[in-house]
Amino acid sequence: MADTAYGAALAATEVDVVIIGGGPAGLSAALNLGRARASVVLVDAGRPRNAATLRSHGFLTRDGVSPLELRKLARAELAAYANVRVIDRGVVGGLLAVNSDSGMRFIAALQGRRPGTPPAVASRSVVVATGLRETLPAIPSLRAYYGMTVFSCAACDAWELQDRRLALIGETPDLAARARLIARWTDRLTVFTHGADVIDTAEEAELAASGIPVERRRIHDLEGDRGAVAAVRLVDGTRIEIDGGFVRPQWHPALDFLGGIDADRDDDGHLVVDGSGRTSVAGLYAAGDAAAPGPQQLIVAAGQGARAAAVLVHDLVGVRTAH
Ligand SMILES: Cc1cc2nc3c(=O)[nH]c(=O)nc-3n(C[C@H](O)[C@H](O)[C@H](O)COP(=O)(O)OP(=O)(O)OC[C@H]3O[C@@H](n4cnc5c(N)ncnc54)[C@H](O)[C@@H]3O)c2cc1C
Questions:
Q1: Mean pLDDT over residues 90-115, rounded?
Q2: I need a surface site. Which of 26, 133, 140, 276 has the fewest CB within 10 A?
Q3: What is the pLDDT of residue 134?
Q4: DSSP 3-state helix, strand, coil percentages of the chain (rounded to 5)?
Q5: Ligand 1: nearest atom to the Cα of 299
C-alpha cells in the first residue's frame, strides 16, 4: 500500500487495538479488550485450523462442542460490546508500523473486503492471533480422514481412539517421542515413517521393547469409508488394518503480512512472546498457535488471548504488573 493510503487510513479509522484472527485466541482477546473499554477491530479470514473436525475436546464446559458452535457462542458474547467491531472474511494483507504525530501507530491493510469495510485500520496496538497452516505428509486420501478418525493432537482426540489399532504417520524427527506419547492411549500402535529416515535404530529398538513396531516402507494410501479409516496400504501392496490414527504435520505460522516488522521468531517461525504475550516489537502482541510455544489447544489459545488482552491494557496505561 502506498504511503498516501496509510496516511488516509490514519486519518480515517483508528482504534486502540486491531486483532488479526478470530479463532479462540483472537476472540478471547476481543472479549477481554472489549470489557476493558478498548476500541477494537477484529479481522478474521474465517479459516480456522480445526475446520476439518466435527467435535472439539478439552475445552472446559464445552467438551465435545463443534468448532463452529464454539466460535458462534463467542461471537454472540462479543455482540454485547459495541466497542468491538468484527470484520468477517477479511484478510490483513499487510501491517506497517509508522511514527505519527500522536506516537507509534500500526496500519493494517485489509484485503477481500465486504462493502462498507475500510481499506485499512490504524491502531496503537496489534494482537496477532492468526493460528497455523499445516502441511500433511503427501498421502493421497489423508485429508479425507483428517479430523474424522485421523488427528494430530493426542490430548485433543486420543481419548476417543483409546485401546484401538492406531497408526502414527509422520516424517518429522520427533516421531519416536510422539509414539511414546500416543502409546499412553493404546498398546496397539504402529509407527509409519512413510519412507523418511526419522527414527534411528536405538529409537526403533526402544519402541520395539514397548511393543510398537516401526514400518519404514512408503505408504501408497489410506483405505476406508466416509472418514472412517480402515487400513494403511503400503506401496508393495501390504495392507495393515487400523481403526484410527495420528499424523505429525509440519506447521507454518502464516505471518507474511508482517512484512518489514521484524519481530523475533523461533526456528519454526512462531512469534516469540514473553510470558505475557508481548513480542519483541513494542505494541505487537501474539496469542494462540501463532505464538511459541504450545500446547496447541483451544483453551490454551483462549487463555493466551485473555492474558495478552490484560497485559496490553496495562501497557497502554503504563502499569507494568501483570495483575
Ligand atoms: C483436526 C484438528 C482437530 C483439533 N481438535 C482440537 C480439539 O479437539 N481440542 C483442542 O483444544 N484443540 C484442537 N485442535 C487445535 C486447535 O484447533 C488450535 O489449537 C486452535 O484453533 C488455535 O487457535 P488460534 O486462535 O490460535 O487459531 P485458529 O483457531 O486457527 O484461528 C486463526 C484465525 O485467524 C485467521 N487468519 C489467519 N491469517 C489471517 C489474516 N492474515 N487476516 C485475518 N485473519 C487471518 C484464520 O482464518 C482463522 O480464522 C485441533 C486442530 C486440528 C487441526
A1: 89
A2: 140
A3: 93
A4: 30, 30, 40
A5: 11
- Has this prediction a pTM greater than 0.85? yes
Query: What's the chain's average pLDDT?
Result: 94
- C-alpha distance from residue 189 to each of 178, 207, 261, 266 (Å): 11, 10, 44, 32
CB distance 28 to ligand 1 below 6 Å: no
Q: Is the Cβ atom of 52 under 6 angstroms away from ligand 1? A: yes
Tell me what pLDDT residue 7 has.
Answer: 56
Three-state DSSP class for 175?
Answer: helix
Cα(27) to ligand 1 centroid in Å equals: 11
Please report which confidence band the pLDDT of residue 1 belongs to, taking 50, 70 and 90 as the band edges. very low
Q: Cα separation of 91 and 279, whole Å? A: 21
Q: Measuring from atom 35 of ligand 1, which residue has the nearest CA?
A: 21
Q: In this structure, what C-alpha cell is assigned to residue 238? A: 501390504
Whose CA is closest to 33, among 72, 86, 73? Answer: 86
Section 112-127 average pLDDT: 88
Integer Cα distance of 323 and 319 in angstroms: 9
Query: How far is 140 from 131, CA to CA, in rounded Å?
Result: 25
Sign of CA dihedral 75, 66, 183, 200: negative
